[in-house]
Amino acid sequence: MLKTFKIGGVHPAENKFSSGREIEALALPKTAFIPVGQHIGAPAAPVVKKGDKVKTGQVIAQSNGFVSVNIHSSVSGTVKKIDLIPDASGYAKQGIVIDVEGDEWLETIDRSETLVNDFSFTGEEIIQKIKEAGIVGMGGATFPTHVKLVPPKGMKAGLLIINGVECEPYLTSDHRLMLEKADEIVVGTRLLMKALNVEKAVIGIENNKPDAIRLLKEKVAAYPAISITPLKVKYPQGGEKQLIKAVTGKEVPSGALPIAVGCVVSNVGTAFAVYEAVQKNKPLFERVVTVTGKSVKQPSNFKVRIGTPASELLEAAGGLPDDTGKIISGGPMMGKAVTSLEIPVTKGTSGLLLVPGAEARRDGRMACIRCSRCVTACPMGLEPYLLMTASEKQIWERAEKEKVMDCIECGSCSYTCPSSRPLLDYIRLGKGKVGQIIRSRKN
Amino acid sequence: MSITIVYTVITLSAIGTLSAVVLYFVAQKFKVYEDPRIDQVEAALPGANCGGCGHAGCRAFAEACVKENDLSNLFCPVGGNECMSGVAGILGLEAVKKDPRVAVVRCNGTCEYRPKTSNFDGATTCAIASSLYSGETDCQYGCLGFGDCVVVCDFDAIHMNPVTGLPEVIDEKCVACGACVEACPKMLIELRKKFPKERKIYVACRNEDKGGQARKACQVACIGCSKCEKECAYDAITIANNLAFIDSDKCKLCRKCVSVCPTNAIIEVNFPPRKIQKETTESTTVNQ
Question: Do A89 and B132 make contact, defined as CB atoms within 8 angstroms?
Answer without folding.
Answer: yes
